[in-house]
Amino acid sequence: MMRNVFNIFCKEFGSYFRSGMAYFMLMIYAVLSMVAAFFGGYYFQLSNYNLFSFFYFQPEVFTLLIPALTMKLWADERRFGTLELLLSQPLGYTELVAGKFLAAWGFCLLMLLASVPLWITTAQYMTLDNQNILFGYFSCLLAAGALCAIGCTVSSFSANPVTAYIAALAVCLLLKVVNFDFILKSAAAGSDLFIRISHSLNFDSHFASMISGQINAGSIAYFIILTLLGLWLNVVSIGYKRS
Amino acid sequence: MLLVQNLSKSFGNIRAVDNVSFCLNNGEVTALLGPNGAGKTTLMRLITGFYGADSGDIRIDGCDINTARTQALSKLSYVPETGALYNDMTVYEYLRFMAGLRHMSEQGFVDNLVYLSRQLELSDVINQKCETLSKGFKRRTALAGALIHRPGLLILDEPTEGLDPNQKFSIRRFIREYGRRNTVIISTHIMEEVEAMADRVILLNHGKLVRDTSPQELKLLTPDHNIETAFRSVTEEGSGAAQ
Description:
The complex is a heterodimer.
Chain A: H1 2-18, H2 21-40, H3 52-56, H4 58-79, H5 82-87, H6 93-113, H7 116-125, H8 130-155, H9 161-177, H10 181-188, H11 192-200, H12 203-211, H13 217-242
Chain B: E1 2-11, E2 14-24, E3 28-33, H1 40-47, E4 55-60, E5 63-64, H2 69-73, E6 76-79, H3 91-101, H4 106-119, H5 135-147, E7 153-157, H6 165-178, E8 183-187, H7 191-197, E9 200-205, E10 208-213, H8 215-219, H9 227-236
Parallel strand pairs in B: 3-8, 3-9, 6-7, 7-8
Antiparallel strand pairs in B: 1-2, 1-4, 4-5, 9-10
């Protein structure tokens, strides 16, 4: 099984580089993350012992970029007719889905690694809480995994990468919209239960609690469950096409 | 090698494949004939596991396509009508990827690569990107990808579509040769191809199997002993009883 997953992973991960998309995405990620950290996150004004200014805007950056990473994963297979070829190979649907997901998630890891120079540079000027920063990176990876799983699933419903991008962006934004308490409060007219449910589904609040250094099992479970749910839906959608 | 029993598949109200049964042995090249919409492509997609059947069984070398999907698919290769390739890969990368999906050893891959490059005249384009290949080379690369692990059952949808006469001749000769030791199914509209390659003809009309015979016997159905006239007379008389 692992060999099949690895083959699909290599194909998709290599595809980012063969198409030149990898370099473009890495550049955009670096620019967006740094602009967000320096100007939006008040990097120079705040005491960034845990790189909070950098981590704080990662969900927004990922929401914009991850749908671009996942949009082609299934949509192109349908568009160019290679899905027929791929599904006639002796591979399980789970292996296919896992390979493609890991390629996108692996690329997110590469994007995060591109931000390590910021960590090193900041360490020259102040004493950092490295443990907290490592946990921040771990949180980013978990959040990216959930968004990748959502993006992969959405991509499997469309043969057009642009449609897949817009739809995945919309779903990711929806997860973030439930973050806005003022909308919830006005809409639910003070229903505590509704607000509590929406908070438990809230992407940003789980992420914010993690990057603030709180090791919260609930938040970790939230991202893992969201990822597994996305992957399961992806497997179901591929199986559904067969039936 | 291939056993198809009472196979049916509908799309809404359209019965694309209607209670089709046949058995193919090793050393046979079988032509799947029928007018447009007769159910040829659907039948091939059912055999390759791309579609799930509404009812009926498909067994490849004794392995059921539903209960032992990956085992069954490991014994076959399929080249869709589109001859779909991964355009961002070179011919070598594509063949390597296909070999990886079949868990081939390095030595086995190299041996088959050398053999297929010579047989299908791919040596000059081996490092060329698939998107830059001519239609003829694309068809041959797709065929090489299907043959890289020497499958026992080879299924080809319109294998010589878009090829020039020289290429058609060499591909037909190759398929004929390959079919001496393996099972080959070709779907085609070209009657000259049936005469040149097939040992057996399975004729479909409106999803039903209307003739299962040899090209020679099919020709005898009409006074002029012409396979094209025979094809027309069988398909125009509607869905006759399966022989």
